[in-house]
UniProtKB/TrEMBL annotation:
Key word DNA-binding present: yes
Keywords on record: DNA-binding
Keyword DNA-binding: yes
InterPro entries the record matches: Sig_transdc_resp-reg_C-effctor (IPR016032), TrmB-like (IPR051797), Tscrpt_reg_LuxR_C (IPR000792), WH-like_DNA-bd_sf (IPR036388)
Full protein name: DNA-binding response regulator
Single GO molecular function: DNA binding
Lineage: Bacteria, Bacillati, Actinomycetota, Actinomycetes, Kitasatosporales
Ranges for domain HTH luxR-type: 157-214
Length: 221
């Protein structure tokens, strides 16, 4: 793929058929930015990168995964990322919205995840150096402000007890404060106090922002 190319594929099967060899040929750097672990979930690609890391050694091959807090929604996902780290990859979590879900290989090839189609996710593959360099720079800028996985897991995800989760559910129900308080069996004053406490836990300035923050962290599930 020396000449600049741009083409699209649909679904994981076609992606591996068309560009699977690129994962095998990675020489120095593999970067991945995704909202969650489902975006780029091909086991063949993961195995190929792990093989490259073993063959090259940690000092000669860089593998970095940049994810949103949604990727930490359940313990299975967290355990997977810990395994990825244990094999030499670097994992960081960004609270900022990722503008592109993408894979960058050796700063020469880029795979952008697009819309869902009836036969799977659409992916755009390009070797345009201008496009690759632009997204690469953006990845680096977000990476530099993101938090490594262990640090994030230790302190950034607040613990919500059963009462807080009930309040969060009530906020998402569309009920008035009075109706929500009656449903929960508490006074209106107590309900509003608990809402305020929840907003503090989620570092939210408004109820709407609290809902968004909880969704990002997977706390509303």
């Amino acid at each position: 793929m020396r000449n600049e190319q741009v083409f699209s594929v649909r679904g994981d099967v076609e992606l591996i058929e068309r560009v699977g060899h690129l994962f095998e040929s990675a020489q120095a750097e593999f970067l991945c930015a995704a909202r969650d672990l489902k975006t780029f979930s091909q086991p063949e690609a993961r195995a190929a990168i792990q093989n490259r890391m073993r063959a090259k050694g940690a000092s000669a091959f860089t593998s970095q995964k940049l994810l949103s807090p949604v990727a930490l929604a359940d313990e299975e996902a967290r355990a997977h990322l810990r395994r990825v780290q244990s094999k030499g990859a670097l994992v960081r979590i960004s609270g900022s919205q990722l503008p592109h879900e993408t894979i960058l290989i050796d700063q020469q090839v880029m795979i952008l995840a697009g819309r869902q189609t009836p036969i799977g996710r659409e992916y755009t593959v390009t070797t345009s150096q201008i496009l690759v360099d632009g997204v690469h720079s953006l990845f680096r800028a977000i990476w530099d402000t993101a938090v490594d996985l262990d640090t994030y897991l230790r302190g950034d995800i607040p613990h919500l007890d059963a009462d807080s989760r009930m309040i969060l559910k009530a906020l998402g129900s569309g009920l008035t404060d009075a109706s929500a308080a009656r449903r929960l069996g508490v006074s209106l004053r107590t309900y509003r106090r608990r809402v305020a406490e929840l907003m503090v836990k989620l570092e939210a300035d408004s109820r709407f922002q609290a809902g968004l923050r909880a969704g990002e962290l997977g706390l509303s599930r």
